[in-house]
């Protein structure tokens, strides 16, 4: 089976701070199906209290541990969907007091797999999802929505103080330039499958490929529910988007989100 993640994460990970002392990104190479360069990214947010919220954790290297210790204390570890969870075990082992957060279906999926057991403190359900909260410290800085209508069961967060949207598979911004920048001899755009993936999942121009893919594929199971979630997210005040796949959108993210999700926003408004 082809490798999905780099075997040497410490040598190829890019650690940087889009918002100094507040947001740190951990960008790594990742090959979808072992062949398609989509990249992966974990995000660490330092709350005003000094607590750290980790989203879509990636490999816990020694440098990552040093970065964490310099930032604060890990209090929350979140799997952003039912696919972005493979490093929950190592992070829970290192930071056993942190609350583990995930979407409906993930605890059951992990229970059926040969992976480490982790105790989920907060699980977002499809039914009555609006009633779920994390705690006062977390909720004082984050808005969140469980996009249960997404094929991967997406949790999306907005860090209000920095106007930063953090998401996994809701929106891609390929190519994964930063995530492959430290891989010797690698080109984030090389390979026919990678080029085909990037042709659909980019945000340039009208982003018609991604717009069509989300409309006809990702949201097709429950488009009404998906539209409602997209409308809620659109109501948040954000400028930066930190996706798991592709480059960080440093500014202008709200307009890009509205462009990619235009049909869903229009459908929601029409149905009101």
Automatic annotation (TrEMBL):
Matches recorded under InterPro entries: DUF4336, RibonucZ/Hydroxyglut_hydro
Superkingdom of the source species: Eukaryota
Pfam short name (any one): DUF4336
Protein name per UniProt: Metallo-beta-lactamase domain-containing protein
Species assigned in the record: Coniosporium apollinis (strain CBS 100218) (Rock-inhabiting black yeast)
